[in-house]
Amino acid sequence: MSFLIPSALYALALLAIPIIIHLFNFQRAKKVYFTNVAFLKGVKQVTKNRNRLKHILILLSRMAFMACLIIAFARPILPVENGQEVNLGRNISVYLDNSFSMQNELSNQAVMDIGKDYVEQITNIFSDKGLYQLIDNSFSGNSYYFTESTRLKDKLAELDYSNISRGLQQVYDKQSNVLRSYAEAPSNQIFWISDFQKSSVGDLSALKTDTLNKFYIIPLSPDPAPNLFVDSVWLESPFIKARENNILHAKVVNSGTDDIVDRQIKLFVGDVQVSSSNVSIEAGSDQTIEMTFAVNQKGQHACRLSIEDYPITFDNDYFFVVKVAPQINIVAVTETDQGYLKGVYGNEDFFNLTVYTTKNVNYNALSEADLIILSNLPNINSTLSKEISKAFQKGKNIVVFPSEKADFKSYSASLGMNFKAVNQGGEPAQIGIQPPSEEIPFFKDVFEDVSPRMNMPQAAPVCYWNLRGNNLLKLRNDRPFFSEVPVGEGKLFLFASPLNNDFTNFHQHALFVPVMYNMAIGSKTKAVKLAYSFDGTLAKVDVKDLKPNDVVKLTHGETELIPAQKIFANSLTIDIPKGKLPAGIYEVKSAETDLTYNLVAFNYPREESLLDYYTTSELQKIFESKPNVQVFSDLQQESFTRTFSEKNKAQPLWRYFLIASILFLIIEVLIIRFWKTT
């Protein structure tokens, strides 16, 4: 116990006054004549003892009354445990985690609602003496200001869940910057109210804080709960055909503490359910499932995988976009049109083949092509070479069938390869082609079985090259026949022989069609991404007929926004929007004409779905070396105000001493009034 006005204790010297009064009896003696001396002595002795006891009790009561009253005026207090009392008049910065993991429940109440109640109790603790800053994961403009408690409560009522997760270092940096620029006090109060989800708040052992401000950590550890969610999806074949069965793969995760048994997952295309699958997953594990589906119409389709799960519902749906049979533009430049390419690509309406001879090349068409085929060209001129360079920068694929009379110096200069001519010395001698390796992804699902004795085409090479990529097919002499070389953002496919009966029968072999199909389909699907996450940075969308100065917008129901964007050729790159946006399928539209160019899917970050939290004991161990950090444990929601005050506010005791002084005064009056003496 200590005193706010210790000088008042000097008044305790006044306790000597009742003692002096007691020691000196100032009442005058009165003579009484009595003949029975023996009886008088007995009565005198009894009376004397009773009077002495009464006066002692009165003295003690009077002294206790005076002592308690004097101590009450000295303002006694009971100091806090750590000796650092909170200053109620300084600035209070409160961070309330409003990420989706706060949907979880604690004692049948949403964790975020409990957090809101703690914020209100904090305003009651500091009353009107403090100014408040409320920070949530959105880092909105309001978080740059301190306001009164009434305004803080208004903000609290408007606060909703956010799809943004923040590391605690980000939160502290934000609070620290605002406090330095706004607050004059050297020491302030910083509160962190969160479930302290490990995947969100980061490595707290590396958290850097100051030693001036006081930190109060209020962990809200939710009750164990089930949570099943779709982590990611991908297609068995990235090229979807209409009215054919397609296979979708989905990684499903059970981040809860209970096993999931026979839970149904539904696949929707648009609003129509097209497939479903039941899963059983142990707690803390994942499983990859396959779902077969068919789509009747071409074009883009909004899809979603849906799970019924409670109490965490934000990740029950996973949205993605599939494009059925997209148009693949193929431009071939050849010395003479021999019809082989039209025979391959003319059977499917999603292939759009245009063939130009070297005399009538439309170079503008090359910039619109997904796949460029150079066949039987004697040389590559400078104009075509520039278009090839642009195509690689845009991520296009180029296929080269050389001419037997090719100028390989122009080939080398234009394609960035070191070509060497093969001298046939008369009639071309064709060599057998080796069966491909089963491990090469390019030939996946092309062969049912690869055998050394299988029938393969033959070829007489007219050139070879220094290999920088992958040999997809090799001749029996181990020289390359068909190679895949990454160049820039695109790929270069090289063949060692021209499409000529004198040099190869490859174009007449059954292998020719799947090879040409895979090169074409790969040119369209290599950059296709089914969905994006809000915690990503950039999203790429294919668009057509856009000019560099055109502006696009994203719309989803009533939500509409114009993101930061960059247009290059037929590709649109946008900054993935942040903030309180719903997950779902967004339309990419012209800001002027409202014309829809494409669809793009955005999902909430899956890190919020991982139910792994810092325990109170872990937090205490992490911050045990920091005396200005206080971690609350075993909190009871209804008694937080009292618990905080006991730990951080000195307890005033003057009321108790004032009450005690009144009680002793009452005791003195009662003794004088009812203690009868003779």
TrEMBL record:
Domain CARDB: 226-307
TM helices/strands, residue ranges: 6-24, 56-78, 653-675
InterPro entries membership: Aerotolerance_reg_N, CARDB, Double_TM_dom, Ig-like_fold
UniProt key word Membrane: yes
Keywords: Membrane, Transmembrane, Transmembrane helix
All copies of domain Aerotolerance regulator N-terminal, residue ranges: 1-76
Annotated protein name in UniProt: Putative membrane protein (TIGR02226 family)
Annotated organism of origin: Sediminitomix flava
